[in-house]
Each structure stands twice: as structure tokens, then as C-alpha cells.
Amino acid sequence: MMGIIKQFGSVIANDQVDFRAKAGEIHALLGENGAGKSTMMCMLSGVYRPTHGEIHIHGEKVRIRSPKDAMRLGIGMVFQNFRLVQTLTAAENIVLGESSSFWRGPRWMARKSEEIEAISKHFGLPFPVDRPIWQLSVGEQQRVEIVKTLYRGADFIILDEPTSVLTPGEAEQLFETLNRMKQEGKTVIITTHKLKEVMFISDRISVMRKGKMIATMAKSETNERDLAQLMVGQESVHNNTIRREKPQGSDMLVVKGLNVYGDHGRKVLDGLHFQVKAGEIVGVAGVSGNGQKELAEVLTGLRQWKDGEIRFDGKLLQNGSVRGAIGQGIAHVPENRMKSGLAGSLGAVDNLLFKTYRAPERSRFGLLRTGSNRSWSQKLIELFDVKTPGIDAPVQFLSGGNQQKLLLAREIDLEPKLMVAVHPTQGLDVGATAGVHTLLEDLRKKGRSVLLISEDLDEVMQLSDRILVMYGGRIVGDIPREEATREYLGMLMAGSEKEDAG
């Protein structure tokens, strides 16, 4: 891949990137979230088309306009979020879309199942071929995806964050399979953040940062520390030039021994223990998929926990109750504002009412107070400087920054004791990002607590009083603001031990 540029509107996701992979090697593509590595692989697999640049396979220039083109060239990709039909069997998913004659014959599916079983056994990827996908574990579903690429003749296997959903045992099994593929001359490309895995499984390593290719080297030429520096950058480690007093308030949130299980029955939070003081911003740093999403859901009532307890403002938090969390004073800025934060087809008034429509000032005898609600909404829009064509205009037509400010307006108007903000500036420009940061700082000054969950290290270091680092569903670091460096955080986020990092 030579001189690859990929633009999404005004955003440049890949900027003049060169990438080369050899036959019979495992090549790790390393970088933080948003570094551009998945976008690169989506172009190689035909999901996206490059804005500029060339792709060569076996020395010949090719045009990859669709996943079908990629598969014809022997390229298959296993995505982090699997592309499987839950109600179909594993075998049916693998043959789905395969061209065949109109009359397949009475034993066509049985023969295909036998072929699939033979491939899965050869590469050490066992799964029940005749069982529906929804009955398989996450690890088994991933094996189905890998076998699907092998069944279709792929010589280039791309795996996007392959171990993010696997147990340690499943990860070890996967590595054995990848080595077997390498021995048979296949090219394996892994996009990942995890330094230990990179040093364990890869032959060569390429590092991306902020849409650019920073370096490519053999595994023997580097180590975890150097990779962490390349991945997160060596620029100034203290963007937090403003020194502020340490919060003196009492504990607002206390989490003890919290165990939480994910949608597929796997433990996603393991014995979590931490606290957040009143008037404190606590940042949560970590690579996506290490339990941050589930932590936010538990605190805001969207997910139940199995063991442990959560005390909020001195009282036990009700398990799995959104209304209970709102009633106790917990606000939430979700990761995806248009999926679970705002209703895009509704106007500003309706979106602002979502959490307060039962309040006496918002409704009476089950009927909304239309006039006063519109006046209240207009005041909030002006106060938070939300640019909108009108309070009835569907919010899906607002810019990302204005959508986020509208969401924050609703949550902050509740006068929360704790704000759980998940990636609050994701996709926002510099001005909108600064506005969101100011709102979070204002909450802190008023003695409120903020739990800031973000994959942007600069943001976490700039805003937080303390930084918790999550890895594998556990807190592996609790670092004061003044001691945080990009290198240290990067090492912890990638699963390196504290003594290795320090």
C-alpha cells in the first residue's frame, strides 16, 4: 500500500501511508484508537476505497472496490464486531453468498459442512458447524469468521483487534492457529494495541499514530518500551500546565469488589475497587474493550452487576435501575450520542425533556406544559450556545458539536452530583472540544464529581485529578495527575506490568 490517503469529509484518517507485508509472516499493525490502522485494513479488504494511493498484490497494481474484489485477490478480514447472522448455523454463515447452481442437490449442505469441518480441524479452530451462531461463545464465533476467510481461499488474513473479546486461553489457541497459517505461507496482519501480544506473536511491527505511519521494524529490533513511545508519541507529557488544588471533598462514589458479566457471559469487570471524591475529575484510560463501557453502564443503571457494592453519596446504589441512578443524581453522556443519547428525528425540546418530563414544572396530570417547556428549552439552548435552526428542528441535522452541547445541557441542567462522561469530545473539532472541557471543569469547580472515560490520553491528562488505567476488566494503575506521562499510561494500557513501565 503506497501513498494511501483516506478522507472522510474534512477529516484525514490516513495521510500518505505506506505499508508492506510479506508472504509467510505475521505483521502487527500497532497504534492507539483513532490512529488509522483499521481504516487502512478496511481499504485493503474493500470496505472503503482510498481517496488517493495505490495497492499492489504480488507486485501487480490492483483496484479493490468491494469486499468481493478483495476476496477474489485472496484477502479476507475478520472484524472486531463479527459479521455473522445470529439465526443461521455456523456452516450456513460460511457458505452465505457463495455462487452455486440453481439445483444444489440433496446433500449439498452436508458436503459443505464436511469441508468446513476439515478446514477447522486442520487449523485448530474447532466449533459446532450445525449450531446457530447465537448459541456459540465469542471465541467460537471468531473461529467461524476465520474459517470463513480460509474456506473462501484467503492468502491474506487480516484480524482487527482479535484478542479483545477472547479469554487468555482462547488467545493462546488463536496464536497457535496464526503460526500454522504462517507456516503454510499465508500473510497474517493483526491490528492491535497490546504490546505483550505484539512481542509474542509478530515477526514485524508497523506503528501508526494520528493517521501516519511512524515506523516499521522486525520484532528483534525493538521492545515494549520503545513501541509504547512510538505509539503514544514523545511530545510533552504534561499538557496539564494549570496546577490546581487537590480535591478535599468526601468520597462521592465508592466502588468495592465489583464483578460484572458481559452480554456473552464473560466477566468484563473483575473485582473493581475505586472511589471518586466530590469536586474531583477522575479519568479512566484504557484501550476499547477493557471494561470501560460496562463500567459506565453499571453506574448509570443500564447494566446489572453480579457481586460487590456501589455507594453513591453515602447510600447504596440501586442495581440496574436507570431511574434510580437519575434520581440519586447521576448524569450520563454516552459513548454514541445519536444511538443512546439523543433521538435524531425529534427536536431540541423533546430531547431536553427525556429525563425530566415527570417533574411538576415540566408536566401536570400527565400532560406536558408545552409553553413553559419551550421557554425553558430556549433558555438552555442560549445558555449552552447550541446552534440550531430552531427548537423544533430534528437534532440529527445539527453538527456533532452542537448535538453534544445539547446533550450536556440536558444532563448538566439536572444539577448532577456525578457526571459519567464517555468519550465526550469524540468526533468534535477543536472549538467544540474546548467548550465541552470548560463545561466539565465548571462542574468540578461547583464541587460535583466527574468520571471521564476517554481513549484520548491528552484529554485525560489535561482534565483529570487522578487517572485510573483499565486493562482486562481491572484497574492496573491509579495515578495522580502530576505523575502521569504518556509513556507510562501507554505501557499500562497495553498490559505491561507497572514495574516494567516505571
UniProtKB/TrEMBL annotation:
Record flagged with keyword Transport: yes
Keyword terms: ATP-binding, Nucleotide-binding, Repeat, Transport
Entries under SMART domains matching the protein: AAA
Record has Repeat as a keyword: yes
Any one GO molecular function term: ATP binding
PROSITE patterns per UniProt: ABC_TRANSPORTER_1, ABC_TRANSPORTER_2
Domain of life, per lineage: Bacteria
Entries under InterPro entries matching the protein: AAA+_ATPase, ABC_carbohydrate_import_ATPase, ABC_transporter-like_ATP-bd, ABC_transporter-like_CS, P-loop_NTPase
Domain ABC transporter as annotated: residue spans: 1-235, 253-497
Record's protein name: ATP-binding cassette domain-containing protein
